[in-house]
Design goal:
Chain lengths: 312, 392
């Protein structure tokens, strides 16, 4: 259409429309309908968080697939997916992953077993000193792990008790992991076990279980979301742990070094150059198990962390 | 089936005594009910029989065994809980067979027993349901099936009907009695509902504040309550109580007097006593002939009528008895509850005369609360017709 506001003779043909850009029109509509503004804010915030959380992953991927010869760009010009295979070719990366999984699973099993017992005691029994004891247990989880390192290192390298050498064995990592991550599980399970109606435990005991039997046959199955939450959180925490993982072994796969050791090994893969690409590829592979676990267990974790209420 | 004996069973917590020297001797195959208000120790007593709580003192015997220190699973008991307590993560079959599976029964034997038990509670064909797919009544039946499937020596039932609606509760009451007849197992039942206790049990144990008040057949507790607490607790609506004094010629209160020979009462005239009489033993003047031995007439005003259909509860305001010369400061005793037949023509506000049935009057010692006398005789010395008898 032709321009309404001006004529060749300069006169005004019709009432002039207010000159508005799209932004002003949007604002005007938002004033009429504030929901639009809230929705816009939601998208902006979501976009912001998506970019800040996902961009590192994206760049990790870029870093991995950019061939060494090519320059690093935001959008890579060339791709080389062979680097993911190189990870396994250059070092025994599978063994590192296996070590990580074994350490994480073993720790999770130990933590769940012990914190189930502790959760039962704190959640279902009345005894003097219960609250202070619970607080003490929780306080341990706030201690910096570094505070434990030197004494534990001395202990595990056989300098305290002659002949007891745990350095370079799974025990050197599983023991500190278990004690560090147990308080959170105890806390979660205490809450869950405390909510199971007394009648159910009594019924199980009358029907023929011991207290311990009632715990594992009735209370634990009924607290499945809580147990799953505690288990998944422990698993991820151990899998991601850096400090003891790196210091309690010499980084060799046969000495139970977890993925951290593998990545550091990859750093040394290229003797005279920095091998960011292969390290990035290793990191991406390392993320996969946790990503799968989170996707699979997500529903349970969410319901476990938020709700936890159980009907009788 | 077994006899259950509690000897001096006491449960003390840090600051309170929940159960004080409880002695119960429950016969083999008997249906007994522990009844009392909230916090009277009835559930604690049951938990001690079950082994869920250990007594501070005393012994619990089931059959010939001293089970005081045995865990619940080794006591040969099973239990039905107030909150039903079916395991929500197991289907009906797994719930019923839980105890059998723990005891390593053969699969065929378990199936047979589960089918039997489900048949007894009329829940065949529901074995693969989950508890949350069933109604409250069905769940309670499954809980009962779980209790009977192990063929225990003693059933413990802790207010099993309390969470059911009123209609279902009455229905399940009958079912439980039928079940008891069928199984002939000793049943110990806990309830705070005296109607449940009255209707179902062979004997009832009335508890208050951790102490056994009376352990007798329901009608004995109703007709010859051992003390004022039992008299007030058993029966609905509750017994009327009037505070007064024992005089040389009978009972005297602010509102009315009842004459009777006081020799048999056992305490001396001038002592404060409480007179108790049940609503159905108060008669309006018209139907006075129905009373076995009516007392002197009492002036009263009809305050409130509560028609129940089969009877009418009449709340009476008592007029001041000027002759007794007692002051008007007695306020709790101003009313009397009377039950009359539904064809009565009484209206609110009517001034009427009522009488009590001497044969059904109870006297309680104010100091101890103990019953002194159940039923009193006529003052004229015609004591031959006294249906009442002395306590103890």
């Amino acid at each position: 259409m032709n321009d309404d506001t001006t004529r060749p003779d300069g006169g005004v043909q019709t009432e002039p429309e207010l000159k508005r850009g799209p932004f002003q029109r949007w604002i005007n509509r938002s004033i009429d309908d504030p929901e639009r503004a809230y929705r816009a804010m939601f998208y902006v915030a979501t976009g912001f968080f998506l970019v800040t959380t996902l961009f590192p992953f994206y760049f990790l991927l870029v870093l991995a697939v950019t061939p060494e010869a090519a320059g690093l760009q935001l959008v890579p010009a060339a791709f080389d997916f062979g680097v993911f295979l190189d990870v396994f070719r250059q070092i025994n990366f599978l063994r590192y992953m296996f070590n990580s999984l074994v350490l994480a699973l073993t720790t999770t099993a130990i933590v769940l077993l012990l914190s189930s017992l502790a959760g039962y005691v704190f959640g279902r029994l009345e005894f003097p000193g219960r609250t202070p004891l619970m607080l003490l247990v929780l306080a341990i989880s706030y201690f910096p792990p570094a505070a434990f390192f030197v004494p534990l290192y001395q202990l595990f390298t056989g300098n305290v008790i002659q002949g007891l050498v745990l350095y370079n064995t799974p025990g050197a990592m599983i023991l500190p992991f278990s004690s560090l991550f147990m308080p959170l599980s105890i806390f979660i399970l205490t809450t869950f076990y405390g909510q199971i109606p007394d009648g159910l435990e009594d019924a199980a005991r009358v029907e023929g279980t011991t207290r311990l039997g009632a715990l594992f046959r009735v209370i634990v199955p009924l607290s499945a979301p809580g147990v799953a939450t505690a288990g998944v959180l422990t698993f991820i925490a151990v899998y991601n742990e850096f400090f003891f993982s790196q210091l309690m072994n010499n980084g060799q796969p046969e000495n139970w070094a977890p993925i951290v050791g593998g990545l550091l090994q990859l750093q040394r893969a290229g003797q005279f150059q920095v091998t960011y690409g292969i390290m990035a590829a290793g990191s991406i592979i390392a993320v996969v198990p946790v990503a799968i676990l989170v996707v699979v267990a997500q529903e349970k974790i969410v319901s476990g962390l938020t709700a936890g209420a159980l009907k009788e | 089936m077994a006899r259950v004996q509690l000897t001096d069973v006491t449960k003390r917590y840090e600051d309170v005594t929940a159960v004080e020297e409880m002695n119960l001797d429950i016969k083999d195959g008997e249906f007994i009910t522990l009844v009392g208000p909230s916090g009277c120790g009835k559930s604690t007593t049951m938990e001690m029989i079950a082994g869920l709580t250990s007594p501070s003192d005393g012994t619990v015997m089931i059959g010939d065994r001293d089970v005081t220190t045995l865990p619940p699973k080794d006591r040969g008991i099973s239990m039905v809980f107030q909150n039903i307590a079916l395991f929500p993560h197991m289907d009906v079959y797994d719930n019923i067979s839980f105890g059998l599976r723990l005891r390593d029964y053969e699969k065929a034997e378990i199936d047979r027993r589960v089918d039997d038990a489900a048949g007894i509670v009329q829940m065949e064909g529901m074995l693969d349901r989950m508890p949350d797919e069933m109604s409250g009544g069905q769940r309670q039946r499954i809980a009962i099936a779980r209790a009977i499937v192990r063929e225990p020596e003693v059933f413990l039932m802790d207010e099993p009907l309390a969470n059911l609606d009123a209609k279902l509760r009455v229905h399940m009451r009958t079912e439980l009695q039928r079940l008891h007849k069928e199984l002939e197992t000793t049943i110990i039942y806990v309830t705070h509902d005296q109607a449940e206790a009255m209707t179902m049990s062979d004997r009832i144990a009335v508890l208050n504040e951790g102490e056994l008040q009376q352990f007798a057949a329901p009608l004995t507790c109703y007709n010859e309550p051992r003390n004022e607490f039992v008299a007030g607790f058993i029966g609905s609506p509750a017994m009327n109580f009037t505070n007064g004094d024992l005089t040389g010629s009978g009972f005297s209160s602010a509102h009315y007097d009842v004459t009777f020979p006081t020799e048999g009462v056992g305490i001396s005239p001038g002592t404060p006593v409480t007179l108790g009489v049940r609503p159905e033993d108060v008669y309006p003047e018209e139907t006075l002939d129905d009373a076995a031995d009516p007392t002197e007439l009492i002036d009263a005003e009809v305050d409130v009528l509560e028609p129940m259909g089969d009877e009418i509860f009449v709340y009476l305001m008592l007029a001041e008895d000027t002759e007794s010369g007692m002051g008007g400061d007695v306020s709790g005793d101003d009313t009397l509850l009377m039950s009359v037949s539904p064809d009565s023509t009484l209206e609110e506000g009517d001034l009427i005369n009522v009488a009590l049935d001497r044969a059904k009057i109870h006297l309680f010692d104010d100091d101890t609360g103990e019953a002194l006398v159940h039923g009193v005789a006529r003052a004229t010395g015609a004591s031959a017709d006294a249906t009442g008898e002395e306590a103890e």
